Amino acid sequence: MKSTELKQRTFDFAVRIARLVRSLPKDVVERELGRQLLRSGTSVAANYRSAQRGRSKAEFIAKLGIAEEECDETAFWIELLIAIESVPQARVEPLLAEAYEILAIIVSSIRTARRQT
Predict the structure, then answer these.
(1) What is the per-residue pLDDT across 55-110, written as a single tens digit (0 to 9) for each?
(2) Distance CA 93, CA 79 (A)
(3) 71 and 61 Cβ atoms separated by less than 8 Å
(4) CA angle at residue 73 from 97 to 37, to 5 degrees?
(5) What's the CATH class of domain 3-115?
(6) d(CA 43, CA 39)
(7) H or E element that contains 11
(8) pTM here?
């Protein structure tokens, strides 16, 4: 996958996360979980974008590492929302699958970058 494609894919993922958070019930639990989800879900795209502008291979790998952590955290918040029945699993399953796919791509990119150093 080209870096421009993943940049767009992570941006689209952030948009989908924002739309999900906007649609959550407005009670105390969902509001707080939504904030956490919004932060981590949008951070994936921001950190991937930042990695692309890294000044060194080490900075690139470090920023990708942050994107990896944020993507994994995003999957956690989605799984938690499913577990407490805030959202139907069927509704967010495609978004969760996208989180796992992006995570796998980022992990692979980190491995490749480390081998090239």
Answers:
(1) 999 999 999 999 999 999 999 999 999 999 999 999 999 999 999 999 999 999 99
(2) 9
(3) no
(4) 85
(5) mainly alpha
(6) 6
(7) helix 3-23
(8) 0.94
